[in-house]
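@channel sequence for tomorrow's demo:
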Amino acid sequence: MVEMIGVLAVVAILTAMLIPKVFQTINAARVNAAASAIGTVKNAVATHYGKFGGFADSTGTLFIPSPSLEDPLSTDPADIDAQNFDTGVLLTDGLLDKRFSVKLGDQLPTNLIRIRQIVAAIDATAITEASANYDFDGVAADVDTNDGALVCEAVITGVTAADARALKERIDGSDITGVAILPALGAAATQGRVKYPPIGPGAGGTVLIYINHR
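structure tokens (generated this afternoon):
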């Protein structure tokens, strides 16, 4: 009986040590798969961009979304195509074999590739986690995107703070040319290619990932 209790105790200890590692490995695989999906979209957009010289449908008609397009759930008819660039253009043209989808967040149809218009050239210090502007180099004194440009970005909704930070670290790293850009867990991210708002415990936020712009 004593030997059996000893064996069970060892098994319990090993299980307690291994289970967190298993979950960490599974989570890392989900984040890596999401980053890989972003890379696939980047390649598809680059191919499409090279063919049409911009963001267009198969007829060559450019998408010009309304300047107010900020909400991925917008029902403005002028924004429908711009909000579904993956299914409406990339998938239709055979550059993707399925709609954009990752195993992060709420995995709803609000996970998509969209086009937005930058309506004002703003200083990098004013770039927010929801704006169409991106601060690529982490330098607050310059402007990285210009008025009137169209930005192609991935939208992932309902992402936890831990997953958002892990995805940003996977895509952006911890710094850009020596400027630290990886925020604390739960804090907003506004620099680099991955942006998101402050995300509290048990909550989910919208993560935006830069794909391309013209």
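heads up for whoever presents: The chain has one domain: 2-213.
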